[in-house]
């Protein structure tokens, strides 16, 4: 089983960390993947293609078909954009589980799809915070998770690691070095223990499935920054389309409220469960982000699906 790191030469926030990572010991050229060069270091494979980071689908499956090596996880190195232009280092799972069949995802993926979230997301956020602080990147750079969004399609547990939010910061060498160190230390390439290996979870098997809130999931982040917390999908309010029961003349409750919110929750739960075999997936709700009818409908649907709701103390 190998780890697949994916970078693109058309993105300065992708190629900067890649160059810093490849300057570290142990790398050597690997096989071509349909013209895409690769680099090998222990059980890690790094691909460097020339296309949009969200448009090269199924790189995990394609690698397996060409090399015969099974892919255990995928890590994308990319840029982050934000209206605020605030400098940031971010991590997030991927998918567009709320989109309907026939919709065209604006940034890759497939309607109603989400990749299994990489179990390293929570542990790596905490590791990244430590690296950023040690290299004096904070408080200038915000270190945070983002909600689940965009493509490309993968079948393996996946996460994006990003530098934001403008070209000035995408090209920052200190930020690139921090991301390279995150990958280096997080995968144990320097000889230390890898960080975020679910198979060695020390008996802590509760996993947070975030539901509701804004794109930077602040209520969920309050819990995730604590040691030992595992993280699955993070579904923000904009990925939970719900039709108002008054305006749509529906019944207040899970069955009477239209929209793709139930699909988004179900897909996110199922793929999180697949990523954490043996784990107990608990939904954590950002209660203040919902109207009363929304919260009632969501909690009712979670009960119908036998998805337990967790309070902050349940995850630590």
From TrEMBL:
InterPro entries linked to this entry: Deacylase_DtdA_archaea (IPR018033), DtdA (IPR007508)
UniProt keyword annotations, A-Z: Hydrolase, Metal-binding, Zinc
Domain of life: Eukaryota
rRNA processing as UniProt keyword: no
Keyword Nucleotide-binding on entry: no
Molecular function terms from GO: D-aminoacyl-tRNA deacylase activity; metal ion binding
Residue intervals passing through the bilayer: none
One example of a Gene Ontology biological process annotation: D-amino acid catabolic process
Protein name (database record): D-aminoacyl-tRNA deacylase-like isoform X1
């Amino acid at each position: 089983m190998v780890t697949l790191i994916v970078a693109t030469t058309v993105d300065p926030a992708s190629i900067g960390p890649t160059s810093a990572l490849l300057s570290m010991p142990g790398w050597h050229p690997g096989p071509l993947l349909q013209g895409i060069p690769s680099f090998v270091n222990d059980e890690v494979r790094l691909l460097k293609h020339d296309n949009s980071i969200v448009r090269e689908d199924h790189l995990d499956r394609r690698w397996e078909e060409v090399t015969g090596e099974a892919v255990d996880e995928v890590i994308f190195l990319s840029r982050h954009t934000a209206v605020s232009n605030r400098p940031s280092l971010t991590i997030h799972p991927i998918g567009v589980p709320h989109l309907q069949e026939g919709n065209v995802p604006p940034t890759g993926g497939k309607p109603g799809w989400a990749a299994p979230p990489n179990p390293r997301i929570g542990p790596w956020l905490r590791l990244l915070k430590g690296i950023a602080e040690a290299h004096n990147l904070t408080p200038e750079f915000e270190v945070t998770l983002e909600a689940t969004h965009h493509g490309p399609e993968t079948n393996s547990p996946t996460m994006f690691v990003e530098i934001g939010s403008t070209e000035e910061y995408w090209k920052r060498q200190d930020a690139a070095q921090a991301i390279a160190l995150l990958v280096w230390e997080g995968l144990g390439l320097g000889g230390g223990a890898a960080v975020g290996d679910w198979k060695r979870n020390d008996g802590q098997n509760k996993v947070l499935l975030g539901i509701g809130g804004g794109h930077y999931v602040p209520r969920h982040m309050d819990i995730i920054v604590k040691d030992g917390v595992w993280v699955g999908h993070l579904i923000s309010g904009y990925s939970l389309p719900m039709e108002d029961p008054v305006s749509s003349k529906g019944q207040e409750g899970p069955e009477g409220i239209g929209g793709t919110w139930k699909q988004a929750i179900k897909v996110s739960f199922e793929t999180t469960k697949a990523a954490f075999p043996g784990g107990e997936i608990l939904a954590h709700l950002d209660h203040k982000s919902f109207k009363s009818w929304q919260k009632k409908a969501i909690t009712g649907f979670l009960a119908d699906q036998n998805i337990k709701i967790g309070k902050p103390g349940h995850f630590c």
